[in-house]
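Thanks for the sequence, V.! I ran Putative nitric oxide reductase (Subunit B) transmembrane protein right away. Repeating your input here for the record:
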Amino acid sequence: MSKLKLTAIALIAVLIASFTVLLSIGSDIYREKPPIPTAFVATDGQTLFSKDDVEQGQLVWRSMGGHQLGSIWGHGSYVAPDWTADWLHREARAWLNITSQERFKQDFDSLSSEKQAGLEQLLREDIRHNTVIINTDDTTQVTLSRTRILAIEEISQHYLSLFGDDPKLYTLREQYAMKEGTVPSLARREQLNAFLFWGAWAAITERPGLDYTYTNNWPFDPQLGNTPTSSNIVWSILSIVTLIAGIGGLVWYHASGKHEPLPEPTAQDPLFFKKPTPSQKAVGKYFVTAIGLFLLQIFLGGITAHYAVEGQEFYGLPLAEILPYSVTRTWHTQLAVFWIATTWLGTGLYIASALSGHEPKYQRLGVNVLWAALVVVVLGSMAGEWAGVQQYFDLDMNFLFGHQGYEYIDLGRVWQVLLLGGLLIWLGLVTAAIRPALKNQGEMSPVIWVLYSSCIAIGLFYGAGLFMGKHTNLAIAEYWRWWVVHLWVEGFFETFATSVIALMLVRLGLIRTRSANAAVLFTTLIFLTGGLIGTLHHLYFTGAPTSVVAWGAIFSALEVVPLAIIGYEAVESYRMRQAAPWMIRYRWAIMFFVATAFWNLVGAGVLGFLINPPIALYFIQGLNTTATHAHAAFMGVYGMLGIGLMLFCTRGLTGQMQWNEKLLKGAFWSLNIGLAGMVFMSLLPVGITQFFAVIENGYWFARSPEVIHSPLVETLVWMRVPGDVVFGIGGLFMGLFFFDIIKKAIGTKTQTVEEGISTEA
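Predicted structure:
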């Protein structure tokens, strides 16, 4: 049996095994999720919060922006607090002061250290003890002590004022980048309190019979007894050992393998004289749309970043009244997915016809209809999210058309279903175009099948987000959300891109078919080995069982392994730009592939592993270290790759047209230098500053205004401006480049028509 077949069999085995583990862990999460009791009650039986209060409160949280305004269990945005950690800290302070006054007639801070230690021990015994009782009628209840209820009632008033428009908390709302009257309805704010309390209760209540909480002792707060578990530390160490062993094995494999010399390129560009089909020409509008969305994303990113300094204003303008932080951040993150996905969907439609040389009937119509549908979904979902955050919908209507509250899949359920429908239409169009190439058993069949399989996964796996219902337990919602974010965006798009690049380079005669087959299958095997189960590193502290820590730690370390030799890939790609004189046409597409390799190593590899081990993520989840990795990996890898693919396809669409190389050069260097500036001059230093704050005072402190709006952090936020400006200039260069192409294309078409009229005359 050939090595190629063995690799293919291994790949199938990895897929089966990985999804078996993922689904098994999912089953465990369903069984062991933090319960939502029928009622939280006082010792006298009076109900404080009901299950309906918690579930409706979750819908209120989602309607105000959810993850886009602060975070829950560490997942969400970074300017407002983590509501879990904030609630726990405030509840603990209230409990200690109430008890101190009752026992010593003094505030807690006035007590001796010995008395403080005694009260803190009593606090831990009260607040960590699990009092869930299952009644004979299958209802459940949690009994809370009198002192704890008094503390809850005290801080509930704080949140009722904070999410309303109490002028006493105006400054705090501004520091949190919250608009006035975030939740205007008092009844909704009371329900929101129930949900926030439940999230905090799960984070401090020990699992039955165990000495750690439902969230594996997250967030870090020594006063409350939330410190790293033994599993957290042990599996972190083993993950580092796995990483070193994996890198060693991969380097050995790479060094011992046979490296065939690159083929001699043909004298002429093998693709230059290929005339694009009608459906391929129609794909051009996808790329123009992507650039428009990219520019809008950059603009919104600048506004969102500025809100970290002026929470309700933009250089003095009261912008938050119209576009609050939760809306601009929603649009900024969602547009990142939309514009990058648009470039890749366009590439898939273009490359499918290029591979088969086949133009199915009505393919051009299908491409145009799909583009129109995507535009409707993008604009409709953005409008719905704005209306939802402005509280114009009731909670049920918000779920359908407004803001679902979950980062990266914020769009309302109707828009979500329509987007899935669009992806299925795309899959149908790709299938129709690529079918002849699938039937033809040629040398490139393995790569073509990997490409088509990734297209199937892209079309179907977005549907994982539909498994989250209106009242789905947050632990389960996070499980399915990361199926979408990690598997769909970070997983199968990666496989798709690897296959497309290999096919492009083979068609150009720059790499051998056999080498491409082996590289794609092996790279896909290595990636999916860690990438699928590695999804679990997002779920360490989301109410999942401890087994998630073990699986996630080891396999997220394996995710980084193939990135260790990514520099070799970058050098090889860089050399290809000069392989033949005609390669000048593809120079900047290749250069963006080189940038992708660089940011894969730095953004996904180095900065990704910075937050992957459980012990690291325990302290820095939801700090700006996460934003550092997100910007460097999402834009650096997927964004640069999307631009490279777009330029490659555009080269085929424009034929002999002379490109403005200066604009492309300016775009390439501005985007990369600007991205490096915002990451290393601002985001990473802010994250490290917060890291120290966590270690010294607890997680709540790192997310508090004392740190976020300290002179040092605000200075570092302003240090984003140079990088943001340079990056924005790069985006404008890309926009001008495509505007120049459109102008030249219109001019050429006009000239052709005039010449035809002249000839007829």
